[in-house]
Amino acid sequence: MTAREIPAHTVRFEIGPFGVSAVFNCYARVGEPFCRLTCPTAMGCESTAECRESGHEPVDYGRCMFVEWMDADDGIDAFSGDRTALRGGHIVPEWQGDHWTWNYATATGRIPDTAGEVPNVSA
User: Fold this and answer.
1) HEC string of the chain?
2) Where does 1-123 have alpha helices with state H?
3) How far, in Å, CA of 10 to CA of 42, rounded?
4) What's residue 120's pLDDT?
5) Residue 102 DSSP code
6) Using CA atoms, how far apart are residues 5 and 85, in angstroms rounded to an integer?
7) Best label site of 10, 114, 122, 123, fewest CB within 10 Å?
8) Do residues 11 and 91 lie in contact, with contact meaning Cβ atoms separated by under 8 Å?
9) Are 91 and 104 in contact (CB under 8 A)?
């Protein structure tokens, strides 16, 4: 895999007295369109494309919106793949229009197309 093919997000699992929990990490660079850019206005543009079309310039959110979403909710429940054993490693976050899901990255290094329309999920 080249550096571009390595997914920027990982998951690891921990077990404790209250069961299994997921810990999500983001290694995306500052300004990464897929998970860090948001519209700076109170308008709450739905995507970075809409933000730009409205004459605004998206700004870095300061942290990964996917990881923030997973930390605020039960990230294990957001898994979108087929039934499988828990394992840590690289994952692929996917925006579903009103929520995030994730799946394990494939051996070919599948990552999201950050050149496309990116959601604004900071609202």
Assistant:
1) CCHHHCCCEEEEEEEECCEEEEEEEECCCCCCCCCCEECCCCCCCCEHHHHHHCCCCCEECCCCHHHHHHHHCCHHHHECCCCCCCCCEEEEEEECCCCEEEEECCCCCCCCCCCCCCECCCC
2) 48-53, 65-72
3) 31
4) 47
5) E
6) 24
7) 123
8) yes
9) yes
Asked whether the beta carbons of 76 and 20 are under 8 A apart, the reply is: yes
Number of Cα atoms under 13 Å in the Cβ half of residue 12: 3
Q: What is the pLDDT of residues 73-104, one digit of tens each?
A: 889 999 999 999 999 999 999 988 888 999 99
β partners of residue 103: 92
CB 111 within 8 A of CB 2: no
Report d(CA 26, CA 7) in Å as an integer: 9
| CB burial of residue 75 (10 Å; 0-12, 13-18, 19+) | buried
| Mean pLDDT confidence for 31-54 | 80
Q: Which amino acid is at 112?
A: P
Q: Collapsing DSSP states into helix, strand and coil, what is residue 24?
A: strand
| Dihedral sign of CA atoms 88, 7, 112, 95 in order | positive
